[in-house]
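Encode chain A's predicted structure.
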Amino acid sequence: METIPRDLVKGRRYMNIVGMVCVVLLTIPICIYIYKSPVDGYRLIIDGTYLGYIEEPTEVFSFIDILKADYSNRYGGSVYLRNDVRLEKTVVPVKFILSSEDLERILRDNVEFGRRIYSITIKGRDVAFVKDRHIAIELLENFKKKVLKENGVDPLDVFHIGFYEDVVVKAYDSVDNHVNSIQEAMYILNALNKSGELSVGWTERVYFDEIIKRKDKIIYDSTLEKDKTKVISEGQDGIWEIYAQIRRKDGVEIGRTIIDKKVLREAEDRVVAVGTKERHTQTIASRGSSGMFIFPTRGTITSGFGTRWGRQHNGVDIANKMGTAVFAARNGKVEFCGWRGGYGNLIILSHQNGFRTYYAHLSSISVSKGQTVKVGEVIGKMGSTGNSTGSHLHFEVRKGNVPQNPMRYLR
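Encoded structure for chain A:
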């Protein structure tokens, strides 16, 4: 095996060392050149103050997003950047570019965040806070739908709904206020509604049927005696179909407007025959004391005994032209005649067995107090005095001063 001379080995080592030194000496200037040579970059300016250079804008905004998310996690609400952050494009030596660590430190020290929350305000008072405007608006809409559902109202039948109070959504910049959850805010609205501090009003469309009361049509039968009546035809009530708009406050009706109405079934009058056949005085007196009463006038019955317009109507109304004769319905004595409040000109006759008859709204009175009258005798003329909307006789039958249905005694 051939041996390499020692001097040759030493020479080769020397050459390697020299080569390495040359490479280093050549690299240093290149690195220095690169380090000092300008590159495209950006000047970072926050609120008008220059804070350094960066190479990539995304690096700045990524750090800001991280800080913003951290702030939102701690305080909630809609977080926004308070500062004016600007990047101006420039050429800058590499050595002046901020490192990631320095950039993060500068941003932490210089950027500030604000928290915007939204209050539901009723008559100027903040009652609940939520983190977003659309959450507040949606919460109020859902509360109105909830009230409709509780009152069994189909939202499709409602064409206007709102709050009676002044309800608005306001924005606040705040760190201290507690932000309510949706469940908490809804609980607050429910409590205010129950206490009467928050009311929901709406107008709904409704269709309903209403009875058209049949009327009594009087015909005169000369074959019947004066104190007798006979039902010729019972007739029937009619039906209205009504379309209305009803205004409600928390489900309670406060008003309505009739928009349209049509007749589904016409009302048919009940036809009653009233006898006109003259009788001997003795017969009349006998009938008049038996508990039966004759019709006190001629005309059409326009209103019966019972509830009318939400109030009790204590007699029957018989309409005819002004001045139509009014008769004593039974033998009796004039207990009162004259003006009495809503009755207008009134005659009260007392009869046997505790009966009294009332003849109201008369245009004139033909008897005097204490006078004895016979059944069928003219005692006055029909009129429209007192609380009256037209010429008619209001006729009552009372027993022991308790109003009775006159039709029970006229048949």
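The helical segments are 6-36, 57-75, 100-110, 133-150, 182-194, 281-288, 407-410.
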